[in-house]
Amino acid sequence: MSRKFNFSEIVEELQFQNNLIVAVVQDIKSKDVLMVAYMNKDSIKKTIKSGKAHFWSRSREKIWKKGEKSGNTQNVHEICMDCDGDALLLKVEQKGGACHKGYRSCFYRNISEDKIKITEERIFNPKKVYGE
Amino acid sequence: MSRKFNFSEIVEELQFQNNLIVAVVQDIKSKDVLMVAYMNKDSIKKTIKSGKAHFWSRSREKIWKKGEKSGNTQNVHEICMDCDGDALLLKVEQKGGACHKGYRSCFYRNISEDKIKITEERIFNPKKVYGE
């Protein structure tokens, strides 16, 4: 990603709610939606500067670099903003699985049928990676 | 979509915040992310029953059927939920453009370069459709 980024121009266009904006993460190759997370201004800045996805953890109340523990980082190739400026779309190259439960995508459950159905195979063992 | 849906089982798994859950809408064919919106329990129910996407409008504080004014409805083929149950992914067949500004996708602006760049062509005139 370019480092010539005019951060203040971008931030002016964004509509933060409680200092956060929702971010959808999409695999740039397969186009699968991998996860949804939240970003504050600092995590957007860190993402742009480093080229690696950073988010705001609402539960831990701090910035986290995606993959800091698992190594499953996200190289950010593109960031798009929506018409209202209240959502971001990150197009990334995902290393390993995005989901802390061991799946490639966090959206591994389909609820369109009469019950919840798992539609993906686990690609890593979360116990081994996160020690849970 | 199946009508045998066990709604209460699904809802138990979902984590609503202020009675809402974030929903990402993806084109089932192109896999483009079209928009992000919010759903409450009733809009999920209406979506499942009708097969057409319904959302909760935070500004108008009411349920709206996507395309009720523009005719640009979304036939919902699949609904997925994420690992934490706090986000939904709707895979839809989009009629016309999803964006009220006339674009196919709401994410028509790229902010990865040194300024905000429009990356799509308008496919309809919003003034003609919404009379704005």
Number of helices of chain A: 3
Major pleated sheet of chain A: 4 strands, mixed
Helix-residue proportion of chain A? 10-25%
Query: What is the CA-based Rg of chain A, rounded?
Result: 15 Å
Query: How much strand content do the residues of chain A show?
Result: 25-35%
Report on the architecture of this protein.
The structure is a homodimer of 132-residue chains. Chain A has a domain of 92 residues: Phosphoribosyl-AMP cyclohydrolase (Ubiquitin-like (UB roll), Roll). Helices cover 17% and strands 32% of the residues of chain A. In chain A, β7 and β8 form a beta hairpin. The termini of chain A are far apart. The mean pLDDT of chain A is 91.
List the helices and strands and how they pair.
2 copies of one chain form a homodimer.
Chain A: H1 7-13, E1 21-27, E2 33-39, H2 41-50, E3 54-57, E4 62-65, E5 74-81, E6 87-94, E7 109-110, E8 117-118, H3 126-130
Parallel strand pairs in A: 1-6
Antiparallel strand pairs in A: 1-2, 3-4, 5-6, 7-8
Please outline what is shown here:
Chain A has three helices and eight strands. The first copy, chain A, is of the alpha+beta class.
Short descriptors:
homodimer; 132 residues; alpha+beta; Ubiquitin-like (UB roll); four-stranded mixed β-sheet; two-stranded antiparallel sheet; 3 helices; 8 strands; 17% helix; 32% strand
